[in-house]
Design brief:
By secondary structure, this protein is mainly α. It has one domain. The longest helix is centred in the N-terminal third of the chain and has 28 residues. It is elongated.
Length: 145
């Protein structure tokens, strides 16, 4: 039988880091498509590629901030904003390397720069939004650390 604290720890990991892993998996899946423009809705086809990169990574940056702030402890939680931006940006590097091996896809430092910009914007937005009283970042039964 597991202790109450251990259960809360696992719930915290699943509830805060699960969305990060799921979203990163979605990014990986989309990056593995040889012709992503065929899979995207026509509305998004009119948006610049760099804007799409920034929007995509803004989501990852926001989820990373949430996970580092309330799903981690100690120095990681204290430096959640920086950790989120760095983690999402590093994932952007791996995404660009991954695209080197996908037929008909290109990898560029400009795409990565858009990823970094989006990561920072998403993390900062999450910090501001999740710090308000009308959005509770905590899950019932798991006290903040």
């Amino acid at each position: 039988m597991t202790g109450r604290g251990e259960q809360a720890g696992w719930r915290r990991i699943v509830l805060y880091w699960g969305p990060v892993l799921g979203y990163a998996g979605l990014i990986f899946y989309l990056s593995a498509q040889s012709h992503p423009d065929e899979d995207l809705p026509s509305l998004l086809g009119h948006v610049n590629d760099k804007v799409l990169h920034a929007m995509e990574y803004a989501g990852l940056g926001g989820l990373c901030y949430r996970a580092f702030r309330w799903g981690a402890t100690g120095p990681l939680a204290d430096r959640a904003l920086v950790c989120a931006i760095v983690a999402a940006s590093l994932y952007g590097v791996t995404d660009e390397v991954h695209q080197l091996f996908v037929p008909f896809r290109e990898s560029s430092w400009q795409d990565w720069l858009a990823d970094v910009t989006g990561s920072a914007a998403g993390a900062v937005a999450a910090r501001r939004l999740l710090g308000t009283s009308w959005v509770s970042p905590f899950v019932a039964g798991i006290p903040p650390q």
